[in-house]
Amino acid sequence: MKKIIAACGNDCAACPRYVAHPYEKTDEELRHTAELWMKIGYRDHVVTNEEISCLGCKPENWCRFHVVKCCNDRGISTCAECQDYPCDNMRECFKITKSFEPKCREVCTEKEYQQLKTAFFEKEKNLSND
Q: What are the residue boundaries of the structural domains of the chain, listed by start?
């Protein structure tokens, strides 16, 4: 599977939320992801399939770190292209993302953990290879 690297370094192709063709997910897969997100602590309740599904980052989408908007404003695709990389904002993004890894190890199956590791926990590595 070819990587699809988001502005922050996430690998969308590995993400269980990403539903753009050819990465469509079944209703059951999306429901499982919504339940997993609650167990991990990404959400405080099980959200709808519509809310959990993602077609990719856009500047108008909510992002805790405003990474896509920042990249869009600077005319770049990923943070790796930025002369200020890694900025304090991205260092915080990496730190917060990594803070979820122990809980993922605890509540996920090995297969789920590996998928989340590829999708989210390798973002810094993905940007350094960009």
A: 12-124
